[in-house]
Specification:
Strands 3-2-1-6-5-4 form a six-stranded antiparallel β-sheet, sandwiched between helices. The protein contains four helices and six strands; from the N terminus they run ααβββαβββα. It has a single domain (about 5-160), classed as GAF domain (Beta-Lactamase, 2-Layer Sandwich), CATH 3.30.450.40. It starts with 6 loop residues before the first helix and ends with a helix. The longest helix is centred in the last third of the chain and has 19 residues, at about 140-160. Strand 5 (about 115-120) and strand 6 (about 125-135) form a beta hairpin. The protein has helices spanning about 5-25, 25-40, 80-90, 140-160; strands at about 45-55, 60-70, 75-80, 95, 115-120, 125-135. By secondary structure, the protein is an alpha+beta fold.
Length: about 160
């Protein structure tokens, strides 16, 4: 059972993400702003980062971009590895309530207990993803999923309109 987030807080953060989107001059500023916002305001989001598909890489590779949290050894992730690779390959949000029970999990931190990964789409194609780890088991409720998907959609639309 996921820990329910405060609906008022989720709504505030959603509005702040929309404000960031309207004020950011570039997609890069928006990516950075969203990682800062989610990491600072959503207390159970202990690591927040974007992985973007490397253009022309063979095999396809996710490359770490803006992030907030501890350093990670996983700066490049092939699409056939990890929860990040699964989300990017399937084009579907992946929520893992207990990373110790998911064999796809690429351990970044012993403190990580749960994870959500949301694909970022441009013109219907996955171009990256928003990855969030939590030190709490089952940290991502339906409200969290909707918030993170909203943030990923903002980024996708911004990248589409470069």
């Amino acid at each position: 059972m996921a820990i329910t987030s405060n609906p008022r807080k989720v709504d505030e953060v959603r509005k702040e993400a929309a404000r960031l989107n309207s004020e950011a001059r570039t997609a890069d500023q928006l990516l950075e702003g969203i990682t800062l916002l989610l990491n600072k305001e959503m207390l159970k989001y202990n690591w927040v980062g974007f992985y973007m598909l490397e253009p022309g890489a063979d095999p396809p590779m996710l490359v770490l971009g803006h992030y907030q949290g501890a350093m990670t050894p996983h700066t490049r992730i092939p699409l056939n590895q990890g929860i990040c690779g699964a989300a990017a390959s399937s084009g579907k949000t992946v929520v893992v309530d207990d990373v110790t029970k998911d064999q796809r999990y690429l351990a970044c931190s012993l403190e990580t207990k749960s994870e959500i990964v949301v694909p970022v789409f441009v013109s219907g194609k996955v171009v990256g993803e928003l990855d969030i780890d939590s030190h709490f088991p089952a940290a991502f409720s339906v409200e969290d999923r909707e918030l993170v998907e909203y943030c990923a959609q903002l980024v996708g639309k911004r990248l589409e309109n470069k």
